[in-house]
Specification:
Blueprint lengths: L1 H8 L5 H13 L9 H12 L3 H11 L12 H11 L8
Helix pairs in contact: 2-3, 2-4
């Protein structure tokens, strides 16, 4: 997570978005996944008084971080992020 926090520090985010990002990064497991997204998202929404859309929006920013696929909620999403980052496909996930 330290590497992700460094990458986050280079983003120009509003304070609320930054707080959401920190919360999401803290929930990413050592294997790079966000396994319990539904509960994490609900907790962020409650703790930070933000919408589910805001949480998803910030997560999409984290999906641009290295390594490709970090913060994915499933193997399928991880692979789609990696493919999109490499511009191998034009599909959205």
């Amino acid at each position: 997570t330290a590497v992700l926090m460094v990458q986050l520090s280079h983003q120009h985010l509003a304070p609320t978005d930054h707080a959401v990002a920190e919360y999401l990064i803290d929930a990413i497991t050592p294997d790079g996944y966000l396994h319990d997204y539904a509960n994490v998202s609900a907790e962020i929404q409650t703790q930070l008084a933000v919408s589910a859309r805001k949480v998803r929006s910030v997560l999409s920013i984290i999906h641009t971080f290295e390594p490709d696929g970090v913060g994915a909620r499933s193997l399928t999403e991880c692979l789609m992020i990696q493919l999109n980052q490499k511009d191998w496909i034009g599909l959205s996930y």
